[in-house]
Amino acid sequence: MTGKTIAEKILLAHNLSGNEIKSGDIINAKIDLIMSHFGTAKVSSDFNKIRNPKKRKVFDPNKIVVIFDHYNPAPTERWAAIHNMIRNFVKKQGITNFYDIKEGICHQVLPEKGHIKPGMLIVGGDSHTTTYGAFNAASCGVGNTDLFYAYVKGELWFRVPHTIKFNITGKLPHNVMSKDIIIKIAGDYSAEVANYKSIEFTGKTMESLSIASRMTMSNFALELGAKFSFGVPDQKVINWVKERTNKSFELVKPDYDATYEKFYEMEVNDLEPQVSCPNTIDNVKSVSEVIGTKINQAFLGSCTNGRYEDLEVAAKILEGKEIHRDVRMIVTPASKMIWLEAAKSGIAEILINAGAIITNPSCGACFGGQGGILGPGEVCISSSNRNFQGRMGSINSKVYLGSPATVAASALKGEIADPRDF
Amino acid sequence: MKISRKDREYKDVLKGNVWVFPDNVDTDAISPSQYINDPKEMAKHTCETINKDFASKVKDGDIIVAGRYFGCGSSRETAPTILQQKGIVAIIAESFARIFYRSSFALALPILEIDDISKHFKTGEEMEVDIPNAEVTNLTSGNKFKGTKIHPILLNFLKAGGLENQLIEELGK
Hints:
The complex is a heterodimer of chains A (422) and B (173).
Chain A (H helix, E strand, L loop, with lengths): L5 H9 L11 E5 L2 E4 L3 H8 L16 E4 L9 H17 L4 E2 L6 H7 L8 E4 L13 E4 L2 H10 L1 E5 L3 E7 L8 H12 L8 E5 L1 H5 L2 H10 L7 E3 L4 H8 L19 E6 L6 E3 L7 E3 H4 L6 E5 H4 L2 H11 L9 E5 L3 H10 L1 H7 L3 E2 L20 E4 L15 E4 L2 H10 L9
Parallel strand pairs in A: 2-3, 2-5, 3-4, 5-6, 8-9, 8-11, 9-10, 14-15, 14-17, 15-16, 17-18
Antiparallel strand pairs in A: 1-7, 12-13
Helix pairs in contact in A: 2-5, 6-8, 12-14, 12-15
Chain B lengths: L12 E8 L6 H4 L8 H7 L8 H4 L5 E4 L11 H8 L4 E4 L4 H9 L4 E3 L12 E5 L4 E4 L5 E3 L5 H8 L3 H9 L2
Parallel strand pairs in B: 1-2, 2-3, 3-4
Antiparallel strand pairs in B: 1-5, 5-6, 6-7
């Protein structure tokens, strides 16, 4: 018998039939944790369709986390009503892991609060649930109907994925970030390179990256189609998780003789900052090819790049300077903890003095929901994860995706700029 | 615009007129978030960046034929749902993004993966789809194309009228 990948090991450990598994099999697996945000409203209305009121119970209220992050605080009366519907649902179901409007974006808050551990099988009602792969968890997004099924049964069907491996080596140049690595992968191998597949990131560069930088890559891997996206399983993960939970866990490492569908090698010593140009993730250019593209808005935030180190890198570029007068710079920290840290360290002050506005933690402008919608003809450089037509507002606006450093440098110049010059 | 159980009644063979879509049709194109506050408004704007006539001219029983990576992007289930509400009864694409793929089965929207299929159809042509055999026929040209058969477990979701119906039936009275 050949060895197993991380995905195979975690799915085997959760396979309800107890049978051996191989890539391509469809199995029923036990879920360790369910995350849902505004989709909880749909789930709660589905519960009312269960005919026997006594059966309208979630499988285990302690294995569910509900959080408000997309429309935060409620921008309209309709959203206020949806929020209240969800508040009532979690109370009735005894779901105590409920985070109301003040905490931040799901993919930042769940790890911060100690809900995520290595080896877990997690589903979330959000595509970027792959983020928890940075913590060695098998974690993916599903739609609301799958979510409802998992809420009731605590299990769900999974197709055992093939795994592809990206080996990343070299030292990133000044102001080139993990976001540039993952955008470069999209550009080189297409936005579909990991569709239905599990990714394992390995190599010296990955080992040297902070947990936050690894989260960026596991998060953006969804844009490459990934089902799971595992960072390196190392001591950094153990330390980070142990600081946030007392519960025991063990890292899941791939077997040396595991079967991979494909290997990719990448060397980053000379990597240029990368930009995903409108309107697909894999329309990628090096920053030097798009330098000078005029922008109206610079967005620093989202579950991809709204973490403390992202704000810090922007603050270093913006300190003592003023952003271009024709640019609105919107900073949305990914969580309350990050906002507080930025307030205490003085980073928030630097950003505000440079002319940025800082919003409350939320998904905000990233998905065109609220807090920075683009008008017709406008152009935005964004640290977020999607540049689809109309993603951040008008279908006649354009979104360029880059690293936090590229966003900050561009905000200063009023046009897409190279952060290595700062 | 609710879908009744009858509308989701499974049939092995479907016939309908085709809309041909390109590669990389994303969930923001299908289900634009700026209209999330108003599902009726969203229905008017679905896929407008792909084909501006689609939302106003799509008919009940129509079929989408698309290129690669259909439904990439968000996990928003409003994407497959809105297409069902507009009358789409099946989607045949060269590949689907993972979450859209599983949500389609959860919602009993039949989908098939067939290589290069978007090159063999033009918008307005008539198609016959044999779901269990993963075979489609271009009734205009007479050509047949075979794709990947749906896994029996997933085919059962379609027959049960979706995962929600299946679960509610299983839980009984």
